[in-house]
Automatic annotation (TrEMBL):
Signal peptide: none annotated. InterPro entries: SQR/QFR_C/D (IPR034804). It comes from Chitinophaga flava. This is Uncharacterized protein. Gene3D superfamilies: Fumarate reductase/succinate dehydrogenase, transmembrane subunit. The keyword Transmembrane helix applies.
């Protein structure tokens, strides 16, 4: 296999795992935005969505897509040269997304393994407790912003449309702010169930 075909194969894998993941992410972020309405709205939407993404076949495909996205992304880092600002933004946002996906999905799987329901409160606990909120606000804010920057950079490289690309990036940042606002009850901070508080204390030592 020539170096050229290898890069093409990696790119193809990265592209298709990215598309698969994007479908989940669109529903997932819509679910997170429900926190602006109420905890119960978030829980109800997640319950409905879980009937699809928690199906063993769908979840297996999703987890394979996560692993493929991270592995192919990291390998592409070493095989491509980045010159333009858009290429740099694509690579740096992708690096953060790889880090985020590993920790986020790892935490969800670990939480489930310990017997916790990884529902609204699982994510909300870190965001509403002190001092973990100082870690989780930038952690989630950057994750959602990184997705829109990644997509905006790809859009710019493919179409050259600066207006649309900036629009995609700004929308992502606004969605990120809205999710944090919803999860923290407009920064008035939510009371968390004891089991979720305990899980965060174990990790952050307070
Ligand atoms: C910004 C706010 C986000 C919050 C509050 C959040 C919260 C959650 C929660 C609570 C779960 C567990 C779902 C369940 O048990 O049914 C979860 C799972 C997951 N999240 Fe997120 N998430 C966020 C962003 C993201 C982003 C940006 C990505 C992708 C880059 C992502 C990818 C995933 C994946 C792949 C799973 C595993 C699904 C499964 O197999 O059950 N999340 N997230």
């Amino acid at each position: 296999m020539t170096r050229h075909t290898k890069v093409f194969t990696l790119k193809t894998w990265h592209y298709y795992s990215g598309i698969t993941l994007s479908v989940f992410i669109a529903f997932h972020l819509f679910n997170q935005l429900m926190s602006l309405h109420s905890e119960n709205a978030h829980l109800a939407v997640m319950k409905a969505f879980r009937t699809v993404y928690r199906h063993p076949v769908v979840e297996t495909i999703l987890l394979i897509a996560v692993a493929s996205q991270v592995v192919t992304g990291i390998r592409l880092l070493f095989s491509s040269k980045r010159k333009s600002a858009a290429e740099k933004i694509q690579v740096y946002s992708g690096m953060y997304l790889s880090f985020f996906l590993l920790f986020h999905v790892g935490a969800v799987l670990y939480g489930r393994f310990t017997g916790l329901d990884t529902n609204f409160y699982f994510a909300a606990a870190g965001l509403n407790m002190y001092p973990s909120t100082f870690f989780f606000i930038p952690y989630y804010l950057l994750a959602v912003t990184a997705i829109s920057l990644h997509v905006a950079a790809i859009h710019y490289i493919k179409t050259g449309s600066g207006g649309w690309s900036r629009g995609i990036a700004v929308i992502g940042f606004i969605v990120a702010l809205l999710i944090i606002t919803g999860f923290t009850d407009r920064f008035q901070w939510r009371k968390m169930p004891a089991a979720n508080e305990q899980f965060i204390r174990q990790t952050f030592g307070r």
